[in-house]
Amino acid sequence: MITQFISLVFAGLLITGAVSDASRYKIPNWLSGALLLPFVLAIAVNFPGWTGLGLHLATGIVALVLGMAIFAAGWWGGGDAKMFAAASFMFGWPLGYHFLFYTALAGGGLVLVLIASRHLLPAIPVLARHTPGTALAQGAPVPYGIAIAIAGLILLPRVDLLTTF
């Protein structure tokens, strides 16, 4: 029962981050911090041993460094980097590698959808009037929190909180 609760909280936080990024281009700091709570609860429910805990912590730290590098390159916002790192703690190794792969894959798909939508919308005047200030506006940033959430939701069923932790 507790593992389902932990998974539900984690999924809800991922979705909240995606919605916030899509609607405001902002992932609040409290959300990244809150994404660590399911990880802490999972450890409290079933301690993975020092090696397992170390692998989860190392995965999160490597994800933070990678996210900061991507942010420094200007490809992500700071909220995206923090959300990615915070979620990575839950996945540990080797699922952390899969999380990176699925995030990149979902991000590429998101970019393709946005590019196609941005080119098609001007041809539909009714829709074109409603795009300013949204991700569909020409030149708008990509709300990468959506891709991070998609990747996390895809992988969440593979995190067995009773055996992984």
Folded structure, characterized:
The longest helix has 43 residues. Helices cover 73% and strands 0% of the residues. It has seven helices and no strands. The protein has 165 residues and is mainly α.
Helix fraction bin: over 70%
The biggest sheet, with number of strands, parallel, antiparallel or mixed sense and barrel status, is: none
SS class: mainly alpha
The topology string of helices and strands comes to HHHHHHH
Counting DSSP H or I runs of 4 or more residues, the number of helices is 7
Unreliable stretches: none
| Shape label | elongated
Number of strands: 0
Radius of gyration: 17 Å
Distance between the termini: 15 Å
Q: Mean of the pLDDT scores?
A: 86
Beta-strand content estimate: under 5%
In short:
The chain is mainly alpha-helical. Helix content is 73%, strand content 0%.
Offer a few descriptive terms:
single chain, 165 residues, mainly alpha, 7 helices, elongated
What order do the helices and strands come in, and which of them pair?
Elements (H helix, E strand, L loop, with lengths): L1 H23 L4 H6 L1 H10 L3 H24 L5 H43 L4 H4 L16 H11 L10
